[in-house]
Amino acid sequence: MVNVEKSFVNNMFSVEGKVAMVTGATGALGCVLAKAYGYAGAKVFMTGRNEKKLQALQDEFEAEGIDCAFFVADPQVEDDVKALVAACVAKYGEVNILAICHGYNKPANILDQSVEDWQFIMDADCKSVYIVCKYVAEQMVAQGKGGKMIVVTSQRSKRGMAGYTGYCTSKGGADLMVSSMACDLTAKYGINVNSLCPTVFRSDLTEWMFDPDSEVYKNFLKREPIGRLAEPSDFVGFALFLSSEASAFMTGANYDCSGGYLTC
Ligand SMILES: NC(=O)c1ccc[n+]([C@@H]2O[C@H](COP(=O)([O-])OP(=O)(O)OC[C@H]3O[C@@H](n4cnc5c(N)ncnc54)[C@H](OP(=O)(O)O)[C@@H]3O)[C@@H](O)[C@H]2O)c1
Asked: How far is the CA of 2 from the centre of ligand 1 (A)?
């Protein structure tokens, strides 16, 4: 008898009925993933610092029948994050999926950058990941049903770049944190923790790189076997996979989400 359950295969990619918390939900990747969770039948709990944008997202999603809510919080402020988790539990009773999609960069040569500016990037991209994961993990452990955590980091977590001593270091730290959290949380508590490492995805900040006549675009394509830069929807399938039971055996990893950037 071949040992695989039909019901498992039919449902393994489902996030239906799960409660998915999305940080940076106001951003290019976060808003697309939040809506995708909603379309997939999850209850979506969005967070960010910009109340106006969060309210607009809630209005848009609810008009499409998505069950969602938001809470304004800064992910690097411990009290904000405690209140965020409490608000999600008050609204939906639990947290099953965490997708960390917030992030920040202010590139500067180390010779010109202040220590304060470097620390700001570290706090926005690394300390915040620790704080959000810590308090969501506490909640997931208390629920006793496992969970899924997906942290969006960057291809810059694995290689340096001029002006990126803050960003590369913080994203590299977040990737290693993901691997360490998996050691703390997966075997004992059933919480899978993985990161997705994107290259250039279209956003307000990266729009200028998408000009096909620009040198930046042409140079990027030399290293992109996929033949184009990425749209936010390009990472949705991978993120949903890591949020579902189909990825039950995957934890502690930093997954390439780059159109093959590493291959040439
Ligand atoms: N787009 C890309 O090409 C690309 C490439 C590699 C990696 N990434 C990473 O992928 C994630 C999502 O990228 P994205 O393109 O969606 O970014 P984005 O559009 O710039 O949005 C990120 C969100 O993060 C929040 N944020 C900004 N500064 C913050 C700070 N100092 N502290 C806390 N939150 C802050 C903002 O929400 P609020 O203002 O509402 O708080 C913003 O909407 C980020 O971690 C980014 O580094 C993106």
From this structure: 45
The continuous run of DSSP H or E covering 261 comes out as none
Q: List the residue whose alpha carbon is closest to atom 2 of ligand 1.
A: 201
Q: How confident is the model at residue 262 (pLDDT cuts 50, 70, 90)?
A: confident
Q: Out of 3.40.50.460, 3.40.50.720, 3.10.20.30, 3.40.190.10, which CATH number does the structure's domain 13-259 have?
A: 3.40.50.720
Q: Is 167 a catalytic residue?
A: yes
pLDDT digits (tens, 9 = 90+) for 46-97: 999 999 999 999 999 999 999 999 999 999 999 999 999 999 999 999 999 9
Dihedral angle of Cα 235, 240, 246, 247, to the nearest 10 degrees: 60
